[in-house]
Structure formats: C-alpha cells, structure tokens
Amino acid sequence: MPELPEVETVRRGLAPVMEGAVIARAAVNRPDLRWPFPPDMAARLTGARVDRLRRRSKYILADLSTGESLLIHLGMSGRMLVSGDPLGLFVHDHPAPEKHDHVVFDMDNGARVTFNDPRRFGAMDLLPTDSAEGHPLLASLGPEPLGNQFSESHLVEALKGRNMPMKSALLDQKIVAGLGNIYVCEALFRCGIHPARKAGRVSARRVAALVPVIRAVLTDAIAAGGSSLRDFRQADGELGYFQHSFDVYGREGAPCRTPGCSQEIRRLVQSGRSSFYCPACQR
Ligand SMILES: [Zn+2]
Fold this sequence. Notes:
By secondary structure, the protein is α+β, with helices and mostly antiparallel strands.
C-alpha cells in the first residue's frame, strides 16, 4: 500500500507532465472505484488546465482552471503510468491498454497518464478548489508531518494523557496526517520508543524528539523515491513504488542495526497490524 513518501513520489513524477498542461481527453472506463465517480467526470475534466498538483496526506489534488480540483487516492494497489511524454522525461510509447486501466488522461502536450488499479480501493472525486479542505476525506485530517503546523508543542499536547499505545497515536490521522504503518515503526525505532508504550506515559522530551525524526524518516524515503524516478521512467513509466531499506519494518528475526546491540527485531500485532521493534533499544 502506498504511504506518504510513495504518494509524494507519484506527485513529483506527474507534475512535469501535468502542471500547465490541458487535459485534452479524459477516458473514464467504469462507473466507480472504491466509490462512484462524480457525475460527468470525463466531461468536467476535458479541456481543463492543471494549474497545480499538490498533496494533502495520501491524496493528490490537481487544481484545475475550471475552479474544481481532482482528488486522487491510490488506495491499496493504484498505479500511475506516464507514456508518450514529449518532454523526454519518459522514453517509452503508449502501452497497449490493460484490463485495469480505469481512467486515462491524454494531455495536450502528448503525455498520457493512466490510472491502473486491480483491487479498486482507489478513489477519484471532483470538488470546488475553494472548499477542498472541507471534503469529507480531508476535513478531519491533522497537520502535515512535513509542514510547519506539525510542531513539537502540537505533538506533546496531542498525546498528553492519552491511554492509547504510541503506535496507534501516531497512526491517528487527526494527530498527524498521512503517517502509515511502515514509517511509524521506523520513527519509533529511531527514537527508542516501544510501540506498545502508552502515549500519555512518554515524557514530553521524548515525544518532542519524535517530530524531527518523523520528518527525517519521511524525507529520507521521499529522497529514495526521487532517485528511483529516473529508473521508473526508463523502465515502464510507472511511478511511486520503490525499493527502500528499513531498519525494523519487515525485519523480524534479523539483527538490530544499532551498533553494539545483539538483539533480534521482533514483531508485535497491534490492532491487526504488525509492529516491528527492537526489545533492547525501544522502551
Ligand atoms: Zn537494538
């Protein structure tokens, strides 16, 4: 499942071919993904210029010249493919249409952007740009982890007195938006905080130390995604999924990477999801 760094990598890959370009043709090949598409979606997109491509949490928002914004969510398995790019960033021609190509945008610069999603947990919607933040999917989101509002004081205040485990607190999208399982595990490891420790029982000093660490974990992953973009362009034009090495995520039974630590990484299931941690380094 794409997490925030993957979505940001997709946004950065799409921006050069979509920003400033007009959607010359939009093909919507089925009535729905996770939810029905908005009425007349293809007609409302055709002829619209993409003024800006931005990201909020794990959603991509294309602000259009029509006053509407296209909201895109990749869901569990959604992929964006770019082909036929005249700018030379993507070197391959349009591929043959595939079964799960649900939405296709032909841009007036010759680029084609294809949204392919076999499991159809993805979503697209159209909303007025002016009130985008009030959309049901966006309205209750907390601050962006890479934005200024995600501060030490915000996190300390948000976790004060909370009885939930640290892992759950950081996955709570009202506390911080867009953090998922992988990067919460990595941030807690870097800070030496056990995923099951009650949030309200962690000192303010240790909670505050999480803020720069969360930023660093995400920034490192976005950098890895950025360096992968060229490879994806040269391979098949698919954006956003990249190999990245983790300190604890997916490493159950492997040796802890902290110098001098002889423990193995353990796995713990919390709310049905795996947490990976070092029992010696994380308290
Ligand atoms: Zn360790």
